[in-house]
Design goal:
Elements (H helix, E strand, L loop, with lengths): L1 E7 L2 H21 L4 E5 L5 H8 L2 H4 L7 E5 L1 E3 L9 H10 L9 E2 L7 H15 L2 E2 L2 E2 L3 E4 L24 E5 L6 E5 L1 H4 L5 E5 L5 H9 L18 E7 L6
Parallel strand pairs: 1-12, 2-3, 2-8, 3-5, 8-11, 11-12
Antiparallel strand pairs: 4-10, 6-7, 9-10
Helix pairs in contact: 1-2, 2-4
Bound molecules: 6-phosphogluconic acid.
6-phosphogluconic acid binds next to loops.
Length: about 240
């Protein structure tokens, strides 16, 4: 597994670097008359990135008609709930950007989790190319939890890393909240896996993962990478203690 780190002075600059990456990739797909299939995470960290993409500079440059939005995971709540990953993305970006409604494939957190996991699995099979029976995203944007989780793959359920299903139901180990999540083999099938991580709360875990210490083996984020075994870490300097 190869982890590439990109370290920036602050969270704004690390988010801007990921925004530039998304702009560049979407433009290449536009030139190829193809879709850029992007899966986004929730939580707090991507919010600033999304608000950046909504700013005139990016909003008017990104070929939104070529960008398709999917979700890495969703909390099992209404889309209007403050916990909703779709809701956060809509409020920060989608309500401002010219993304065609047909290009937005949200996970329906309000539905019965098992039913939604199956529906989303079928949707990915219909909409995305596949390899080894799993869907292929162009870019999967991930975060890192304080316990080393990523997507909604938590340390107490590492089995989701090797699940035969592309989408599964998960349970938050502390809150008990139900989640819908892409599984490890779906994430690891992607062309590109990008972590956006800020803040010193994550620094020790980032260090363990990058240095492949024995402690890293407990962290789901340690096991995810793209189809070539690589992942990119976009970090502010607070998140780097090594
Ligand atoms: C979620 C996410 C999750 C997130 C991490 C980091 O739905 O919560 O997809 O995997 O990326 O929990 O969250 P923060 O960015 O809030 O630290």
């Amino acid at each position: 597994m190869k982890h590439t780190t990109h370290i920036y002075e602050n969270a704004e600059l690390s988010a801007r670097a990921v925004a530039d990456l998304i702009l560049g990739k979407a433009k290449i797909k536009q030139q190829q008359s193809q879709f850029f299939n992007l899966a986004v995470s929730g939580g707090a960290t991507p919010k600033y990135l999304f608000s950046l993409l909504a700013e005139e500079d990016y909003r008017t440059q990104i070929p939104w008609e070529n960008v398709r939005f999917f979700w890495v995971d969703e909390r099992c709540v209404e889309p209007t709930d403050s916990e909703s990953n779709f809701g956060m993305t809509y409020d920060a970006l989608l309500q401002y950007a010219f993304v065609p409604a047909d290009n937005i494939f949200r996970m329906k957190g309000e539905d019965i989790p098992e039913n939604e996991a199956n529906r989303y699995k079928d949707l990915l099979r219909n909409k995305l190319p596949a390899k080894d029976g799993f869907p292929v995203f162009d870019l999967v944007l991930l975060g890192l939890g304080d316990d080393g989780h990523t997507a909604s793959i938590f340390p107490d359920n590492l089995l989701l890393l090797d699940s035969e299903k592309s989408v599964e139901v998960a349970t938050h180990p502390v809150s008990g909240q139900k989640r819908i999540t892409l599984t490890g083999r779906t994430i690891n099938n992607a062309c590109e896996v990008v972590f956006l991580i800020n803040g010193n709360k994550k620094a020790k875990i980032v260090e363990d993962i990058i240095k492949k210490t024995p402690a890293a083996s407990a962290y789901p984020a340690f096991y995810v990478h793209n189809a070539a075994g690589e992942s990119s870490f976009y970090l502010d300097k607070e998140a780097v203690s090594f």
